[in-house]
Give the backbone structure.
Amino acid sequence: MARPMPATRRMMLPARPQTLWGWPAVINFALGGLGAGWYIVALLAAGLERSPGVAAASWAAPVLVLAGFAAVAGEAGRPLRGSRVLRRLWSSWMSRELLIGLAFVLLVSADLAFPLRLHRAQALVAATLLAVAQGCILRRARAIPAWDVPIMPALFLLSALLSGAGAYALVEAMAGRPMAPTVIGAVLGLVVIGFLAWTRYLGGRREPAFVRAVATMRHSRAVLVIEAGGYGLPLLLGLVALAAPASAGPALGLGGVLLVAGQVYAKARLIRAAGQLRPITLAISLPERRSS
Amino acid sequence: MTRWGMTIDLHRCVGCQTCTIACKQEHGLPADTAWRFVADCEVGEYPDVRRLFLPMQCMHCAEPPCVPVCPTGASRQREDGIVWIHYDACVGCGYCAMACPYQARHFVDDASGYFEQPTPSELAQARPGRHGVMTKCTFCKERVDDGLARGLRPGVDADATPMCAVACIGGAIVFGDLDDASSRVARLAADPRAQVLMPECGTQPRVYYLGD
């Protein structure tokens, strides 16, 4: 009679894609990060003072954040109960995201109506917290191995800053306003840090469920769009802008588009493709292999 | 202090899905929703393969990750440990489903039936308040509460026991008070063979599986 082998943890139900969060969630994460990041970059580039770049971000960022909320509200089963989302501020990052997002919109609006450095500083903090809160939402998703990782809030903050820098560079290039070399240098440094964080995320865990889930972001197309298009080319174009100021406008404009596109694509892959529910495992023993 | 829990003996489960149907019938679940099901699993690699039936449901965790993430407070945990959803407060965002490692939360989109027209039974059991919100196993808390109010003992008296446990043809599912050392469920949960699903998640499930 075959003796049982020692109990080992085995997969009973395989991972399967989550189906509840689709494109509306992607839009919320993408637009929220873009709006917050754009405001942060524009404000820091102007040293917290008012500037045409800050004015553009001040008009666009709240619209982007609110559009993200509107999109994700459409995905909820009972969107008319939306006000209830603010009820669990002490425990739910989704509640905190909404509160921080609304505070950001109010503070930017207040600065537009009554320009004050204090308003802008507060809005800067709110924008930073908004990006972090979005990352924390995914961090608390225990069912999704690709999201439930400690680096997620930092990854979302970096993603917001990168996409925001892209939007800022694009608008500045279209408006014909040259970006200061120090700002370009800072953005390039951000691109390098963002790339390192992204590669750290993809290779940071050996848990099989995580490795399987993020494999979709290691495919050639994802690597081409996210890593080459979203990090490599913008870095190259930024260096071109620094080396040849005459071509800075088009180079930074194109680099900005690529930065935004790369980050939006990365978030879409993260939510839709890497959003795999954790496989169900159980420790059981199997009969020992029988000799023939 | 009462702490409701359940044990499921994997050696007794024959994969008949009677518990699945009993649950659907008891709660009037629409066609595409099942709060519990029995997974037909094939584990191992040839020739060391084994077929195993794994009943899946909400684990009513002591540390439920679905409760704190809920932005509306609709996901709740009672003093006796039952994790439930207040449908009138749920916004249907699905965040709890992303937090539950046991795939135990289900979004009820609409009242889809099994046929083109709803049957009289489906019409009788339709619960519009449950549409557009998240749903899950409740440990049949209405039966438990009603039974207690009538002086019955959940886990002993069928009328006060979750329908899955009542309907199980193999006697695999046992429900009761884990804090009552004399209860059958407490004794089974203390069995060395008892284990919980994915203890590494730190959720402290109150559904125990009796395996090897």
